[in-house]
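TA notes, week 10

Several of you asked for a full example with nothing omitted. So below is the full record: structure tokens for the whole chain, then the designed sequence directly under it. When grading your own attempts, check the secondary structure regions first.
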């Protein structure tokens, strides 16, 4: 509930600090005195956009601060979801700077207007004649019936499953699109993959084949060269080995004379042994070299296949071809995987739909039971408000679609007079009737759900004194369950309040200012008497005011 309101430098208000009780509060004042200014200030607290024209002194900032007692509202989850510090006494502050910039704070934490608006829904319901159109909206009609039916836990459960259901449906649609794309590419990808698999590619294979190809392609020249090397090494007269042996034998003769000579000998001997080994291997290799045209052709075909694949896929190595092969394999296998995913999610969707149907059926059944309760209550209240022949009919029809709060569609039908047919509420009810119906609805809702603070802004416009008396009684009864404000011009309603505030406008020097003042008993008698008789307060009006105040 709203406990205090502080306004500084806003419209005609220079400075205002006012406290409120948790009961039925009345706000009165002449037209133009500033009641709309107070509502405008509260509108800023609830997240409405600020206007630089709202500043009384354009050189000073405007500050509006409201304190709310939240301990009974179970709003801690909202604060946690929005990463805000929760306090049982929460402070909301709006600032409008001379530059036109606006700032908002919840418990000193900066917030944006959307967060303020979302919290404001739980705090204050400012209701005027112009807002009765929400009675014609399906969502609001369901809120009425579901409150009476105590359907809120079921609706929340339904919405949780619906959210998952919609997410699964969206996921399924995406998978189906992916499957369609995969099917289009499937044959081509499978063909490309088969080409790569047929090539039996391995890392390092290209280099190995190219080396083998060069050997086979030049086998005669290689063999000729190796034979020549062997001949040069082994020739008895001029062979390298023969000369090395002579060098070795010569050095052996002087090796004992010096360590240096011995090292020359040892090193020459090592060279001789190594060269002898090399010549032997060359000889053996030369004997094994054969001209094999068939093998050469096979290797050439294999290499050409690799080169063709590299050109086709615009790469230069076998390693890159293997990466492409792996990617194609994944794509080809992905279709099977997609089919499995689609089948799995279709089962999940079917299960969610079955659960939704079950919850929706329970919601529907409870709504049907709540309809006669609502009809009886609202007709009873409207009879008190001068509508003795008012009748309501509510039609709730199940549909195949999943709506946000179940599978029902609703029509709220109304007849104000005997013998007249039912018609849609929004088409057949007058403005005055809609105001009384809305008050009746709010009174019923107060019994079944924790409503926020409600402010009735001249909802009593155009009603008689007797009806106003009944409206005041209804609002008074509502205040037992919630904090209620009524901005009124009718003394019959003003007299019902537990507290009475007066908005007044006065001239101070060159300035016009508005004030909001809590009236004491004597001031209240005078105010109500003035509402009864005008500026000239008579003894009769004083007596009538006292009678109204009992």
């Amino acid at each position: 509930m709203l406990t205090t309101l502080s306004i500084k430098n806003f419209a005609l208000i220079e400075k205002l600090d006012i406290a409120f009780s948790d009961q039925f509060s009345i706000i009165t004042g002449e037209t133009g005195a500033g009641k709309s200014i107070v509502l405008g200030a509260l509108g800023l607290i609830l997240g409405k956009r600020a206007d630089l024209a709202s500043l009384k002194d354009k050189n000073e900032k405007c500050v509006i601060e409201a304190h709310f007692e939240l301990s009974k509202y179970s709003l801690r989850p909202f604060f946690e979801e929005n990463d805000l510090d929760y306090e049982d006494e929460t402070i909301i502050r709006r600032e409008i700077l001379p530059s036109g910039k606006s700032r908002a704070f919840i418990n000193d934490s900066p917030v944006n207007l959307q967060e303020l608006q979302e919290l404001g829904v739980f705090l204050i319901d400012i209701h005027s004649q112009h807002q009765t159109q929400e009675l014609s909206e399906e969502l609001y009609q369901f809120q009425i019936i579901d409150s009476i039916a105590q359907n809120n836990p079921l609706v929340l459960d339904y919405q949780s499953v619906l959210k998952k259901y919609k997410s699964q449906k969206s996921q399924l649609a995406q998978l189906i699109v992916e499957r369609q794309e995969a099917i289009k590419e499937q044959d081509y990808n499978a063909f490309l993959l088969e080409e790569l698999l047929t090539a039996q590619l391995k890392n390092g294979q290209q280099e190995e084949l190219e080396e083998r190809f060069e050997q086979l392609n030049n086998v005669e020249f290689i063999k000729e060269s190796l034979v020549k090397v062997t001949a040069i090494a082994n020739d008895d007269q001029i062979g390298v080995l023969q000369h090395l042996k002579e060098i070795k034998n010569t050095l052996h003769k002087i090796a004992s004379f010096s360590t240096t000579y011995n090292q020359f000998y040892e090193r020459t001997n090592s060279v001789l042994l190594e060269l002898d080994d090399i010549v032997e291997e060359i000889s053996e290799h030369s004997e094994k070299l054969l001209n094999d045209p068939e093998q050469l052709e096979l290797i050439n075909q294999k290499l050409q296949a690799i080169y063709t694949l590299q050109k086709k896929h615009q790469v230069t190595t076998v390693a890159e071809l293997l990466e492409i092969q792996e990617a194609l394999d994944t794509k080809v296998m992905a279709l099977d995987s997609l089919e499995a995913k689609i089948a799995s999610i279709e089962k999940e969707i079917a299960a969610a739909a079955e659960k939704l149907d079950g919850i929706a059926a329970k919601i529907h059944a409870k709504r049907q039971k709540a309809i006669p309760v609502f009809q009886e209550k609202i007709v009873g209240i409207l009879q008190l408000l001068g509508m003795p022949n008012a009748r309501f009919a509510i039609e709730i029809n199940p549909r195949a679609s999943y709506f946000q709060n179940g599978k029902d569609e609703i029509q709220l039908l109304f007849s104000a007079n005997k013998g007249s047919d039912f018609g849609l509420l929004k088409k057949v009810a007058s403005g005055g009737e809609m105001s009384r119906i809305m008050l009746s609805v709010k009174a019923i809702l107060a019994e079944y759900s924790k409503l926020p603070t409600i402010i009735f802004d001249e909802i009593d416009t155009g009603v008689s004194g007797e009806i106003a008396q009944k409206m005041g009684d209804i609002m008074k009864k509502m205040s037992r369950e919630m904090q209620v404000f009524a901005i009124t011009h009718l003394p019959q309603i003003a007299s019902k309040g537990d507290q009475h505030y007066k908005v007044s406008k006065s001239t101070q020097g060159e300035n016009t200012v508005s004030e909001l003042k809590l009236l004491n008993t004597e001031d209240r008698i005078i105010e109500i008497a003035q509402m009864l008789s005008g500026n000239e307060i008579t003894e009769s009006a004083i007596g009538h005011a006292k009678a109204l105040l009992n």
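The two ends are 28 Å apart (CA to CA). Use that as a sanity check on your answer.
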